[in-house]
Amino acid sequence: MSLPQPRTPEEELAHAKRRLSLPSIVAICGSTRFMAEMTEADLRETKAGRIVVKPGCDMKSPHEFWSDPAEAEALKVRLDELHRAKIRLADEVLVVGDYIGDSTRAEIAYARSLGRPVRFTHPEVDPDA
Predict the structure, then answer these.
(1) Separation of alpha carbons 110 and 122, rounded Å
(2) pTM of the prediction?
(3) What domains appear along the chain, each with residue ranges and CATH number?
């Protein structure tokens, strides 16, 4: 008789989400040039009963938090890691916009490496289609 294998952190998270009866969690990804479209996607996903996580900063718009170039670069690194954590937390990813840049392409690859389903508002930009 073999002992049960301990769960991976991912399995523990999935189990906890089921036990808590959490709705599906969607991570919105895309270029921050599509922040308005992300807000609209957030509204639609929320209306459909999903929990939404998305980028919280648009570093292309002026703000004191990233006015210093050195601080801005360090912040971008932290925000990229935070967004990868949002993807790990999510059950699926929704890519917004009709353009896929390097950062979004990396997020899509990361989500798929984790086995997360990826949807697109513009399926024709799927780099793996």
Answers:
(1) 19
(2) 0.91
(3) 22-125 (3.40.50.450)
